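Box 3.1. Reading complex inputs
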Amino acid sequence: MDFKTKNKKSVNQFKGRNNKKNGNKNNNKKKQEKPEKKIKEPKLVDNDEDVEISEDDIQFFKEHGGFSGFLANLDADSLMDTPEQPKGKPKMPEKTEESESEIDDIELDEEDEWETRAIKKNSANIDNEINRLPIKTAEGQLVKPKEALEVVELNEEELKDNPLLTEKQKKKLEKKNQLKEERKKAKKAAKTKEEEVTFNDEEDEKYIQEHNKMNTKSQKKIENEEEDEEEEDSKLANKKKIINLKEELGLVASSIIEDPDNNIGKLKRLREISQDDNIAIKKLSYLTQLAVYKDIIPGYRIRQLSESEKNARVSKEVKKLRQYESTLLINYQQYLQSLDNVIEGYFKYKKLNIKESEKKQNESKSLLLIAIQCLTDLLVNVPHFNFRINILTAVVARMNIKNPVEVSNKCCKSIATLFTKDETGEYSLEAMKLISRLVKNKNYNVREQVLQTFLYLRLKDELRLPDKEEEKEKNKNNKRKKKQQPFLTRKARKVLKENKEVEKEMKEYEATIDLERKQKMQTETLNMLFALYFRMLKNNNNNRLLPTVLEGLGRFAHLINIDFFDDLIAVLKNIMTDQYKNYMDNKGHITSACTAFHCIIAAFQLLFKQGDIINIDLNDFNRSMYAQMIRLSLNPNVGKVSHSLLKSDSVYRSKSEIELVLIGFEFLFIKKKQLSFERIAAFTKRLATITINMPVNSVLAALYMIKSLFIKYSRLNQLMDSEGRVGTGVYMGLLDDPDLCNPFATSLWEFGLLKSHFHPTIREYADYVGAIGRNGSSNVTAGPHAAKYLDYKIDYNYFLERFGVHKFNPQKEFLRPIKSIPKRKRHQGTMYGFNGGESQFLKNLQKQVNI
Amino acid sequence: MRPLTEEETKVFFQKLAQYIGRNIVHLINRPDDTYCFRLHNNRVYYVSESIMKKATCIGRDQLLSLGVCFGKFTKTGKFRLHITALDYLAQYAKYKIWVKPNGEMPFMYGNHVLKAHLGRITEDTPEHQGAIIYSMNDIPLGFGVTARSTSDCRKLDPTGIVVFHQADIGEYLRGEETLL
């Protein structure tokens, strides 16, 4: 670069600017200046030397684009509002022109370096804090640099070796260069110049203003958060410091949220606070940063600029945006890194097995939990943003941590939420990959929750395997289209082709989710899921996890390729028989029949979803279900309603045994017409038999199922007929084969017992169901209580939940008549996993009871 | 009328086991009454003990039939199940096949069961195994031997044979005089 010419130029400009400065805020004067410049420029073109200079200037301008962008973004109004000078800021001595030009060059190099660093996302930031100006706090005190706020932008920090004033001057020089290059934007630039005049005070003023804006909404929110997290600190000085820092946190955070464009640089200050030794402050700052990032992170992913893009000329706005984005990205990355360091550090430290005081342990644990919470929160709320994979990896890796339990709980929950929220299928796929790797690495010995997250995958309803029929139709359509296509000339075709390309591009930019891509993602996810499931079933050395695996298998059974059907059924049968055998041999203290029932239901599910091709009678599974139902009456926890991973929903909670049996009943008898009456009668009889020995909610649920069987198969009224025996032979209640036990030789005498049950609702309901049984399918003359139980929302799930708590209170146990019966819908049993409406219904019921 | 010899019992039970498997036990160990198998005129009858005792009063030439005829031994010493055994076979059947309404008549005229008429089949039915044929209303129609296993059935074309015909209730009309 030609130094001399440049110097001269800058000198000229400097002089010009000085003039302007003298004429503070004089708009007229500036407008007068503008034409001057315009006249100057053509001259420059004539002069060879000057042309060269102008090219250098372009270069210079390019490299320092961020500055001008920053200037352009200043808020003119706020400048005009506050003309007063802050007291705290000492005036800087004016520099000579010579020294300034030197600095100019040094700065150039420095900035070159910085720019490349920024784009490479190199996290190493220079943190030498020298020559910081003292800054005034809310109380009006002057604070020395160490705690000074980061008011200036990040790129300005790089220049902090220079006195403040020279920075400003330089900026103005650049501005002038820019003016020369971009004549069209002359007007805009002039506007910025107006702002420049008061620039010196502007930042400080803003800062002060922000101090006064203590009561903004976001501020309050953060403050509350902080209060919750606050820990008591005994030392007074510390306390004061903490209070100060807290205040600062709030201020900085709110200022960033209010105007992220300009205050993005303050993120660094937040980060600095988080490096405090005090645990409470650390936690607070992490949470604050979480809130800030959640707020300011844009709705798109920030993309790395390619080399050509970097070099290309871009408009001021774009430059500014890029600057903003890269700053955000760097800070975000460092924030994530610090979170990760906290987590990693905790576990590393734990490995060393150093004994510590309890307090310290608690502290580090709480910090760890905060860090985990931040990560999971980010994962759930801004999964589209950069570093998702990193967060995912961090979270997934902690899904299987046994101690402290909260960590894995939180991680699993967040993954589950991610699955449910995932619109594109992309996140699920990534998470799935990571989790399956984790499970493999742990040799399939993971916590149950890890596997439970899969139940939340949005594959059940959304993913449809391509049907053959659909494909056929598609082909047909294609053929038709080909026929219909009119003749086009070569030119027209060319135009059409171009149009298509444009459309394709437009599609890319549209934010809509591509269905095809989603399908692809989900298919891949599904493949991984099944690979994992199958391997776990095959290994089968881990009884603990089998119910979860089987439940998942059942949930997605309709998506399994039919080619696997035989193998899968065989595996399921193996597991089922093994389990039953173990139970009969009294090995392994198995009390719950869940695994077996899950096998049975998974098999039914498989058959139900794919049974169209050939209708198969799953004899072994039927028999096993019939045999194992007896076990339910020996288990006091048969109807225990457990909670799901995400507490709010009842759809995903793991099923109790009675529920599983009833689902099995649905598959066998309600959803498809069962052919063999002997079998239906046998199952009904056995269900009635076990009701005698079950808790209240299970009895009611079972009675509900018997009722639906009565309605669907009217021939079952033979079972309620105590006088005439229809069949010959003897009922063999102990035989474990529904086809051979000859149920029509007996009757459902259990209803007689249930009618004198201690529980009033059971008494009523048994009466009602018995009446239905005797009358065949009619609901009309089903006794005095019929109206109460007509509501279609009453199903077995309702009973299970409503009477699930074992606290008997005779006053409350009566089911009150429902005043207004909603419009009846056609109700064909409840779907597996479908449970909608009960909770709402319960609430309504509760209200009515309270009234 | 005499009890079966060991050789005969073996042949007979082997045949029976093809259809009802281990449920033969239920035929003999009945909680209501004791039942037994008796051979008379080369035919095997399933008869309750009390009736059997009463039948001893009747001479061999005069006794036409007692209890339920399960089938007869052929001259070569093999055993053939008759349609009259269907009631018991159906009750204890191991493998069942349901035929669609449009397949009922063809089967009852003595034809094999085709894939197109197959309404439903027990899972895991092996090849060449005795199976009982039911109508879709769960009424036993006859029995036969499976030509394909369940999994093979899935890939079969509609005209392929699923079950080879052995006996059907149409025989009560068609073979009235020989049935006895």
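In summary: The mean pLDDT of chain B is 91.
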